[in-house]
Amino acid sequence: MSTSASPPKTKSWSWRSQAFRGLVYQVLALILLALGLWYLGHNTLLNMRERGIQSGYDFLVQTAGFDIGESLMSFDSNESYLKAFWVGLSNTLRVAILGIVLTTILGTLVGIGRFSRNALVRGLCMAYVEFFRNIPILLQLLMWYLLFTELLPDAQDAWQAGSVFLSKGGLSFPVPIWAAGHAWATIGLVAGLMLAWMYRRWAVAQFEATGRVRSMFWVPLGLVLAMGVLGWLLGGAPTATRAPFKGEFAIEEGGALTPEFMAVLFGLVLYTASFVAEVVRAGIQSVARGQSEAAAALGLNRNQEMRLVMLPQALRVIIPPMTNQYLNLTKNSSLAVAIGYPDVVSIANTAINQTGRAVECISIVMLIYLTTSLLTSGFMNWYNARAAIKER
Amino acid sequence: MATQIFQSIPSRPAPVQTGGLLGWLQANLFADFRTTLSTLLVGGVLLWYLPQFLNWALVSAYWQPNAEACRADGVGACWGVVAEKYRLIIFGRYPFEEQWRPLVATGALLALLVASCTRAFWRPWLALLWAAVLALFFWLMLGGGGLTPVETDRWGGLPLTLLLSTLSIAMAFPLALLVALGRRSNLPAIRTICTLYVELIRGVPLISVLFMASFMFPLFMPQGVKIDVLLRVLVGITLFAAAYMAEVIRGGLQAIPKGQVEAAASLGLSYWQTQRKIVLPQALAMVVPGIMNNFIAIFKDTSLVTIVSLYELTGSLGLALNSDADWRPYKIEGYLFIALIYFAFCFAMSRYSLWVERQVNQSKQR
């Protein structure tokens, strides 16, 4: 009578189980990948032996033997490849960091401009976005370069505003001669920053205790500037500058931005800003309509509404795609090679042509870009975590 | 205590007229002091520069292929450079007498692309049509079978741009699907391989992938095996584009509620059936804008092959003008011309993406 069905036998393992098949697929994939890599590596080694190509990173300490058009540090052809790569990296970072700052400002303005109540401003912002994002960045870089090198006047009749010159040779401007006073001014600025930070903490505490709103922009800004000026005055108020002047063939002395640098910067900023504008627009649109109406009901004006209600909420949507745009800008700066700005890719190209170590040079370039990308996205993830909704 | 007698407050003024041209102008251009001020400022700048630009580009432009006449005083844009060099710009170094072949090939490819974009053609036989048109394209471009053979290194201009972008889009999309599914797989080895691939590729610029494809790839191959540079670059662009596309598709996959997969499993669908019938249709519909953005990016990115000496549209312009002292000063007009071509394609694609978005999301509209 007791015919209770025995529980089905649980076989812990079967040829047909999903787990086994999963294991087989994975092992197969790994073996295929390993075989493929081994095949490519084997061929490469054979080919290199055949053609007598040397390998290894020892070339980095040899003398480079080429000059670099522009660099932040001094460089001459007797120095090593390592130093050359270093100069290239500094050039890449210079254009990328400046580009990111300018792009953020321009893109945010244009993105907000698309919500303007002024139809002219709205239309202009839309036209800007549609025009700049639908033309390849390379073409834009080439066009800016052409404009800067062919359509600007020669150095002899450069456009002049005060002691700032603009010509085919680039933009020349006066730079202050380093003096002890500048160190004092820097110290003042740092002290001002610290004071401003302390003021901010105090103002927030006051606001939370009493509800009185205190200036969060003009007072801190004034503090920083005042401390800077104070430091400068204490240091003896040095005013000497190295101003550029028209020489025989070129603008001499002073600081200068080369046309290559300006073309890369202009191209990257104008191109990327059109994407950033779309990111900002999408972010603002994602904030519920009730928020803007509630802000109006509280009596906030348009500026306050944007600054205090819309943007903080939009930031959550904006930051991740914005990070992508920053990374794109950094990677696109490698196109500088097309117009001869000595960024890290163009240095690597020259190094490949001279030493034939293609694998090594390209691996260095990839390593540099990977590191920059990871650092940027790490920083943005940290910032994103700060801007995210604080849930309890 | 005085009795308060109800007194109505004075009636509000009638609302500002918002209809009609005047109403629109008032609401959108002269609503208040600040709007009026910015209208005057922006309008002033536009009124100052726009006529100057139009004058340069249209009114005092010179349209005939005559470099002498362009140098005269008061002549604006010299569009003659396009009239003179358009065949070099559009077809690159392709043999001059044979240029009807790229013309027909490009026409066929364009017609195919337009056809694939319309609903009436979304049928199984479209795949056959693609195979036929691509075969025709390669036959016309390569030659053979009655036509003079032309090496691929003489291909250039618009046909090359279109070929590179069409093929790399067509190849990158399936690859991206697989990689996106792989990144969501629960097999750790597959997941790691896909993640590594995507992150490595996305970490480096396209230009270094292209350098690798054109300079280093020959080292990877066994001796005696030579692969055409066009094919190598095509593989490079495809691998690059697939990584970005995979991320977009993964975003869509992540947005599918888990219940959908579980429901499919309870119906007894296998993994591939689940993905094909349940997950992918919903996920892809969600990410249409992102995928179309990717397509547009690929189209624009094909311009980079000019850096590794393949003369597509951007490169063929340099080819046409750099060595010609007469026309070199008018390179900016040439750039504007190809910028217009790129713009037309990209703008059309972005408008088309809006239409597709509406089509695939019809189930959600009410």
What would your notes on this structure say?
The complex is a heterodimer of chains A (392) and B (366). By secondary structure, chain A is mainly α. Chain A contains eleven helices and eight strands. Chain A has two domains: 20-51; 81-177 and 240-387, MetI-like fold, CATH 1.10.3720.10. In chain A, the strands form three sheets. Chain A has a four-stranded antiparallel beta sheet. In chain A, strands 4-5 form a two-stranded antiparallel sheet. A two-stranded antiparallel sheet of chain A has the order 6-7. In chain A, α2 packs antiparallel against α10. Chain A is globular, with a radius of gyration of 29 Å. The mean pLDDT of chain A is 84. In chain B, α4 (80-91) packs across α14, α7 (157-183) packs antiparallel against α14 (313-321) and α8 (188-203) packs across α10 (229-254). Chain B is mainly alpha-helical and 366 residues long. Chain B has a domain at 80-94 and 150-364: MetI-like fold, CATH 1.10.3720.10. Chain B contains 15 helices and no strands. Chain B has helices at residues 20-28, 33-59, 67-70, 80-91, 100-116, 125-142, 157-183, 188-203, 206-220, 229-254, 258-266, 271-286, 288-301, 313-321, 331-360. The longest helix of chain B has 30 residues, at 331-360. The interface between A and B is large, with 55 and 54 residues.
Gap from first CA to last CA of chain A: 59 Å
Query: Low-confidence parts of chain A lasting 5 or more residues at pLDDT below 50?
Result: none
Please tally the β strands of chain B and state the result.
0
What is the CATH homologous superfamily assignment of the largest domain in chain A?
MetI-like
What Rg of chain A is obtained from the alpha carbons, in whole angstroms? 29 Å
Number of helices of chain A: 11
Instruction: Determine the oligomeric state from the structure.
Output: heterodimer
Mean pLDDT value of chain B? 87
By secondary-structure content and strand pairing, the structural class of chain B works out as: mainly alpha
CATH topology category name of the largest domain in chain A? MetI-like fold
Unreliable spans of chain B: none
CATH class of the largest domain in chain A: Mainly Alpha
Gross morphology of chain A: globular
N- to C-terminal separation of chain B?
A: 61 Å
Radius of gyration of chain B in whole Å, from Cα? 28 Å
What spatial order of strands do you see in the largest sheet of chain A?
1-2-3-8
- CATH class categorisation of the domain at 80-94 and 150-364 in chain B: Mainly Alpha
Shape of chain B: flat
Strand-residue fraction of chain B? Answer: under 5%
Helical stretch count of chain B? 15
Order of helices and strands of chain A: HHHHEEEEHHEEEEHHHHH
